[in-house]
Amino acid sequence: MLEKRRLVYPFFILGAFLFLNGCKQKPSNEPPAQPAETPSPQLAAQPPAPSLSAPSSQSPSAAETPAPPVRPSGPIEFTDVTTQAGIRFKHNSGAFGKKYLPETMGSGVCFIDYDNDGWQDIFFVNSMDWPGHKSGSKSFPALYHNNHDGTFTDVTKEAGLAVETYGQGCAVGDYDNDGFDDLYLTTVGSNHLYHNLGNGKFADVTAKAGIADPGFSSSAIWFDYDNDGKLDLFVTHYITWSIETDQYCSLDNKNKSYCTPQTYKGESSTLFHNRGDGTFENVTQRAGLHDPTSKSLGAAMLDYDDDGWMDLFVSNDTEPNKLYHNNRNGTFTDAAILAGIALSDSGRVRAGMGTDAGDYDNSGRQGLLIGNFTNESMALYRNDGSSLFTDEAPTSGLGQMTNQSLTFGAFFFDYDLDGLLDVFAANGHVSDDISVVQPTVRYAQPAGIYHNKGGKKFEDVSAKLGRALQKPVVGRGAAYADFDNDGDLDLALTTNNGPARLLRNDNANQNDMLRVKTVGTRSNRDGIGAKLTLTTSNGARLFAMVKSGSSYLSQSELPVTFGLGKPEEGKTATLEIVWPSGQKDSISNIKPNQLITVKEGKGILSAKPIALAKASGQ
Asked: What is the DSSP annotation of 575-615?
């Protein structure tokens, strides 16, 4: 329309128009929020964000099309930026020679944007000295605030989190739907629920919530199993252990070694139902989940039969894995045997550690990844859509590449943003004296990244992604997030009785991406359990779920990242979201290289362009 006016209006009118237009304020990077009501079709052509209406001939942000982004160049590398980022956390296992079994577990790490500033902060779980063997200094967890410049500040004490526990894992979720993510801490002992007060501080509300869940807890997961809009909590448990019942084991028949879990009885996991008033009810027995034979370390949420009700996969150590099917009436049924994921293909139990669910074959269905013990290899289960799973680790190459590793933290993530989910593995043995009986096996082991080549094949690219990944460590917890907001996924790792590591992903953002943050209304505020399907203008179709838990004792960021491959002129995408409430939203004409925030039933609240090139000094 403007061009037509330029052709017919007198020149002085045009000059005046351009003068006045040039005096307008420069648009902000953050567009205004969509109106509360469902947008009308006319809004589809308004800048800056697309609406819920059908696609229009004009891109929603065409009026404010920015100059082409400055792209990085060079090979992809994971750079160890731990020191320069100001992260000085070191895990304390409390080991002093007695070889207590919990000393082998390590601890987890969680990404949490606790102050809602749009930058992922990091929480590291710590353990502590054993009674009677104090080292003289206390061992606290650590909450690091993201300073937006590649550095972090330790705010643990200010946040009220400087509390000693024999910590194991963590889980992030907004259990009271107040808009601020809360933190659950699992321990050997009594667990803790930290309520986010919204002012940079947390309050321990464990007693009021009734959620201490004493015992030997491991991973935890927030999810809404009854679709009532409130996050419930599932806490995995490992074994029945205490200092008094600690057993003597030896590898060389001379010195004490760490015992295997077969030496101890299992301990049932726990399901807590959120009452909505700040308290929870233990519904484990009623839900059919009481199982004292299990020795669980990892948990992943998935809807494997796509019925709209969240199921759970639980990885067990030397016991059969569990696939808890949601019966839609507050109960679950273990379907792992029938689904083919309880045991190995040879019918044996494996030592399952970390786990994750993800659509690695772009089928629109979530497969499963499990980290296992040395000589067992990782498991990679394909979901065939009929409630059956097939372990494709042997045929994909992943089995052979991971057979000599002992994998704890494990997850799917698209490290190179090509639209195919890759595999990450944090490795490290449990026995510091393992080389005595197995000279070829090492206690400290390098991490692994396995590139998805498509066609259900993977390749080991760990040695091609920089020296940081090749460093042998006693790996345990692992999580991913885009901590520097440049569009690609970085890594936070923990090591047993050692320092944490922050590995920055450099140059993967040569490819396009779209990042999505969900805000529930009828559903839980975080949108945990929302199913996202992204279809691009070039025909690619990608599926992801907003999820809590996964990996080992850890949790990755809640926002979802879609890799969109090589930049193409005019590329757009349509996003379809199925919320836990059943609400379905569709958003068209979305341009790549943005972080969009989508509210259930309302559309896009904000759209921020992603800065692909780092500022100088970072």
From this structure: EEEE-TTS-EEEEEEE-SSEEEEEETTTEEEEEEE---SPP
The count of other CB atoms within 10 Å of the CB of residue 506 is 21
What are residue 459's DSSP bridge partners? 451
Question: Can you point out the beta strands (E) in 113-267?
Answer: 121-124, 142-146, 152-154, 167-173, 182-189, 192-196, 202-204, 215-223, 232-237
pLDDT tens digits, one per residue of 121-140:
999 999 999 999 988 899 99
Single-letter residue type at 270: T
Task: State how far the Cα of 489 lies from the Cα of 479, in Å rounded to an integer.
Answer: 10
Q: What is the pLDDT of residues 206-264, one digit of tens each?
A: 999 999 999 999 999 999 999 999 999 999 999 999 999 999 999 888 899 999 999 99
Which of 607, 534, 521, 544 is CA-nearest to residue 565?
A: 534
- Name residue, tokens 């000094």: 617
Looking at 132-136, 322-326, 377-381, 562-566, which range is the least confident one? 132-136
Among 308, 174, 288, smallest CA distance to 233 is for 174
Residues 363-384: pLDDT tens digits? 999 999 999 999 999 999 999 9
Q: Please state, in angstroms and rounded to a whole number, the distance separating the CA atoms of residues 33 and 30.
A: 9
> How high does pLDDT run on average in the chain?
90
> Per the structure block, which two tokens stand in for 386?
């009929």
On whether the CB atoms of residues 105 and 218 are closer than 8 A, the answer is yes
**For residue 499, cis peptide bond before it (omega within 30 degrees of 0):** no
Give the largest CA-CA distance in the chain: 99
What does the alpha-carbon distance between residue 509 and residue 180 come to, in Å, rounded to a whole number?
29
* 8 Å CB contact between 330 and 226: yes
C-alpha distance across the termini of the chain, in Å: 43
Residues 382 and 392 sit within 8 Å (Cβ to Cβ)? yes
Question: Helix (H, G, I), strand (E, B), or coil: what is residue 475?
Answer: strand
Sign of CA dihedral 214, 217, 221, 227: negative
Q: Residue 227 in contact with residue 581, Cβ under 8 Å? A: yes
d(CA 558, CA 547): 6
**Could you give the CA distance from residue 308 to residue 326 in angstroms, rounded to a whole number?**
10
Q: In this structure, is the dihedral angle defined by the CA atoms of residues 457, 461, 462 and 468, taken in order, positive or negative?
A: negative
Q: What values do phi and psi take at 514, rounded to 5? A: -140, 130
Q: Could you count the other beta carbons within 10 Å of the beta carbon of residue 467?
A: 11
Q: Is 79 exposed, middle or buried (0-12, 13-18, 19+ CB in 10 A)?
A: middle
> How many residues are given for the chain?
618
Provide the pairing of β-strand 594-599 with 512-519: parallel
